[in-house]
Specification:
heterodimer; A: 454 residues; mainly alpha; Cytochrome-c3 Hydrogenase, chain B; 2 domains; three-stranded antiparallel β-sheet; 20 helices; 8 strands; B: 167 residues; alpha/beta; Beta Polymerase, domain 2; five-stranded mixed β-sheet; two-stranded parallel ribbon; 18% helix; 26% strand
Chain lengths: 454, 167
């Protein structure tokens, strides 16, 4: 079923059956980001039939999620879309919070939103960079990967890791940011803007780029039939964006535009991504402006107490007045997780949130609280039920469908990967186009093996 | 800070869905704002066609399709469909329950081609057959893989290497 009738004439002469050639692209092919195989049947340079084969990166995400406690799923979600892991983290956290029926603190919502937007920019940067490189624009690749580096440095500053961040928790995030985070992020935004502007000048009106990218159009009806969402759908003229249509977190308090295309071809997909990056940078700045001050010190007064003191006096039985005399501070490596700030980014529900470290080390209640949450057979237990939470991932609607049987482990964690429907429709998109156009088309899907194969 | 209670869920769509589908709605509930109906497996094609064509509901998108294994509960398997409407901005969850050694659900491939891979994945992971699917191959696992890994009775520790250990 070719989607569009292209006036590509079949090659001249000879028997059409004899001219037919099978070509296996992948699973190890420079243009197949991640590992995927596309088997195409060619007539000359025109693709007559295509079959997409996935599963090379299947790591049993859903099965493994059923074997660990609710909070331990976070490291697995990092590895779904490994270019924008914060969005996966936030999506899963929101799904479990919906199941629990709790709402996290306002400051936490703002931090999650802001970091999701940072991740969206890094994801689009990667996509545009890779597509441009595959079409020969290597300079653009270097510029955009450099811009991604600025943003990943800020992510590292906040979460402690560049890629496998595991920053969110059920009921909050790991910690608040340090003082020098905000200027660093503002600087990264300014420098990223510059790189996007450079890319715009290099590509958007570049004759070679435009000719290569004005290929593989799809219309809105096609996207609806195949369940396609995200930039691909928006380039086809549908303004569906989960952030606008099913506003979650604090997106209804922010001002941003949803770009839509008119022709739905690769060039429109590129333009939509470029504009979404600018909108996301706008959103990050709004978040920085409006970020509410958290409520500090909800139920603990930070007191400094050295571990050696605690041990010496405690061992001699001199416990009277011990807590009043000393105070505890979080280890310097746990920056941002001290009790003076942590309650502003975590929900104060002791059935859900791990207490700050100085409470764990400084009081018996904190210690018991901690162990009740991490010990096998205890922990968070959402009531029996199910919840589906959709967030706008960088490639479209990212849905988490979680089922609880009232146990400390999830019964089922289902991910609706955004690039899955697009990949399932890819064969219909590429049938009838030239083999060389497969590369930018596949690039515009922005297939992420981690979330596609799980 | 205490738990912030989520406001009680309102049934926004269910009255209309019940009126449209009549006796085919076996059960319905609205948990945490997610409206859900359960319909008989054999009527899933008619139900989806009706939800798709109805102007008020206008469910044009099959957002997600997945399987769930409720072992040891009977019926054991569920196939869960998440529908969405871009234009009307609402969602609905539709479930069918199946059981037996070879559970079968009619395919939705004709209504939504996008169901193609989703159904192949459910077949791969749960062994639920989709009747009428033209190309029900495994999707994520390889040909020759034994069993269906997301079933609850498939052990987590079981290994099936394609290439066995050498020496």
């Amino acid at each position: 079923m070719p989607l569009v009738e292209l006036d590509k004439k079949p090659a001249e002469g000879g028997d059409p059956e004899e001219r037919r050639m099978m070509l296996h692209m992948g699973p190890s092919h420079p243009a197949m980001h991640g590992t995927i195989q596309i088997n195409v049947e060619l007539d000359g340079e025109v693709i007559r039939r295509a079959d997409v084969e996935i599963g090379y990166l299947h790591r049993c995400f859903e099965k493994m999620s059923e074997t660990v406690v609710w909070n331990n799923v976070f490291p697995y979600t990092d590895r779904l879309n490994y270019v924008s892991p914060l969005i996966n983290n936030a999506g899963y956290a929101m799904a479990v919070e919906k199941l629990l029926g709790i709402k996290t603190t306002e400051r936490c919502e703002w931090i999650r939103t802001m970091m999701s937007e940072v991740s969206r920019v890094t994801d689009h940067l990667t996509c545009v960079a890779a597509s441009a490189m595959e079409c020969g624009a290597f300079t653009v690749f270097l510029y955009l990967i450099e811009a991604r580096e600025y943003l990943w440095e800020t992510i590292e500053q906040l979460t402690g890791a560049r890629l496998t961040i595991s920053y969110c928790r059920v009921g909050g995030v790991k910690g608040d940011w340090s003082k020098d985070f905000e200027p660093g992020l503002r600087d990264a935004i300014a420098r990223t803007r510059e790189k996007i502007h450079l890319t715009d000048k290099l590509l958007t009106r570049n004759r070679i780029w435009v000719d290569r990218m004005e290929t593989a159009p799809t219309d809105a009806a096609f996207c609806r039939r195949w369940g396609i969402t995200g930039p691909w759908l928006r380039s086809s003229g549908v303004d569906y964006d989960v952030r606008k249509d099913f506003p979650y977190s604090i997106y209804d308090q922010l001002d941003f535009d949803v770009p839509v295309g008119t022709r739905g071809d690769n060039y429109d997909r590129y333009l939509v991504r470029m504009e979404e990056m600018r909108q996301s940078l706008r959103l990050i700045e709004q978040c920085l402006e409006k970020m509410p001050e958290g409520e500090l010190n909800v139920d603990h007064e930070g007191r400094v107490m050295r571990a050696s003191d605690m041990k010496d006096h405690g061992a001699r039985g001199e416990t009277e007045g011990l807590v009043m005399d000393y105070s505890v501070a979080a280890d310097p490596t746990l920056q941002g997780t001290g009790s003076d700030v942590v309650w502003s980014v975590r929900v104060g529900d002791r059935d859900v949130t791990l207490p700050p470290k100085e409470e764990v080390y400084g009081s018996i209640e904190g210690l018991i609280n901690h162990f009740k949450l991490v010990m096998s057979g205890h922990g968070i237990r959402p009531p029996e039920g199910e919840a589906y939470q959709a967030v706008e991932g960088a490639n479209g609607e990212l849905g988490f469908y979680v089922i609880s049987k009232g146990e400390d482990k999830p019964w089922r964690v289902r991910v609706r990967p955004p690039c899955f429907p697009t990949m399932s429709a890819l064969h219909a998109v590429v049938e009838g186009i030239m083999i060389a156009d497969l590369v930018p088309t596949f690039g515009a899907v922005n297939m992420i093996g981690g979330e596609l194969d799980r | 800070m205490a738990k912030t209670p989520v406001p009680p869920s309102e049934e926004r769509l269910l009255p209309r869905v019940r009126a449209l589908l009549g006796g085919r709605v076996l059960d319905s509930h609205c948990h945490r704002g997610d409206e859900t109906i359960i319909v008989p497996a054999e009527s899933i094609q008619d139900v989806m066609r009706a939800l798709h064509d109805d102007e008020e509901l206008d469910f044009e998108i099959l957002m997600d399709l997945c399987g769930v294994d409720h072992m040891p509960r009977r019926p054991r398997f569920e196939v869960v469909y998440h529908l969405c409407s871009y234009r009307k901005r609402h969602r609905l969850r539709v479930k069918v329950q199946v059981d037996g050694p070879e559970p079968v659900v009619p395919t939705l491939r004709d209504l939504w081609p996008g169901a193609d891979w989703f159904e192949r994945e459910v077949w791969d992971m749960y062994g639920i057959r989709f009747e009428g699917h033209p190309d029900l191959r495994r999707l994520l696992m390889y040909d020759g893989f034994e069993g269906h890994p997301l079933r609850k009775d498939y052990p987590v520790t079981r290994r099936q290497p394609l290439i066995g250990p050498r020496n």
